Amino acid sequence: MNRTEIYEKLTAVFQDVFDDDGIEINDSTTAADIEDWDSLTHIMLLSAVEDEFGIKFDMKAVQGLKDVGAMVNLIGELLA
Amino acid sequence: MHILLQFPFDSQLLLRKRKSIKKELLASPGLMEKHIAILGGSTAHDIKDMLELFLLDQGILPVFFESEYNQYWQDAMFGNPELEELRPDIIFIHTSNRNITGFPDLEDSAEAVDSLLEQEYQHFEVMWDKLREAYHCPIIQNNFEYPFYRLLGNRDVSDIHGRTNFITRLNQRFYEYAQAHEQFYIHDINYLAADYGLEKWSDPFYWHMYKYCCCMDAIPRLAFSVSNIIKSLFGKNKKAFALDLDNTLWGGIVGDDGVENLAIGPETSMGQVYTEFQQYLKAHKKLGVLLNVVSKNEHENAIAGLKHPDSVLTPDDFISIKANWEPKSRNLVQMAEELSLLPESFVFVDDNPAERAIIRQQVPGVPAPEIGEVEHYINVIDRSGFFEVTNLSKDDFKRNEMYKENARRAELQANFGSYEDYLLSLKMAATIRPFESIYMSRIAQLTNKSNQFNLTTKRYTQEEIEAAAVDPDTVTLYGRLEDCFGDNGVVSVVIAEVKGDTLDIILWLMSCRVLKRDMEFAMMDELAAKAQRRGIKKLVGHYYPTPKNAMVKDFYALQGFTKADKDEQGNTRWELDISEGYKKKQHVIQVQN
Question: ipTM surpassing 0.90, yes or no?
Answer without folding.
Answer: no
